[in-house]
């Protein structure tokens, strides 16, 4: 994805839709910062060229090779932070596994059959029970409001 020399002053919001990009060029743009999470979901990104004034997202630990050219910085070979021998500050909770989520970013995915907050619930989500309770409450409330409010309706 070539976004070089596009007069970008900030990361375009539509960039979040290009998570399958393998090569991204942001050089020759007046970018001042790369906000945290700009490359969230970019797990396939292998080459990123940024203006010389910016650092590679995720820092030096997120890339295998970082080289400086005349006017750009090239970040190559995105590392998997889950395979790092360095202990992470926020380890994944029990019943979950670490998965990369972009340069220097990780996400914790629940192991099957666990789900919910911190992967503490086991089994599947009770969709039938949830739908039944929600449907019953909606119908009951609708009937109650119809019965109490219909006398206020004007008849033609």
TrEMBL record:
Q: What processes in GO biological process is this protein linked to?
A: positive regulation of osteoblast differentiation
Transmembrane regions: 125-146
List the keywords (alphabetical).
Answer: Membrane, Transmembrane, Transmembrane helix
At the top level, the lineage of the source is Eukaryota
> Which spans of this chain does the record mark as coiled coil?
none
Q: Pinpoint the EGF-like domain residues.
A: 108-119
What InterPro entries does this protein map onto?
ATRAID, EGF, LRR_dom_sf
Q: Which SUPFAM superfamilies match?
A: L domain-like (SSF52058)
Tell me if Transmembrane helix is a UniProt keyword of this record: yes
Q: What is this protein called?
A: ARAID factor
Query: What is the protein's species of origin?
Result: Machaerirhynchus nigripectus
Taxonomic lineage is:
Eukaryota, Metazoa, Chordata, Craniata, Vertebrata
The protein's gene is named Atraid
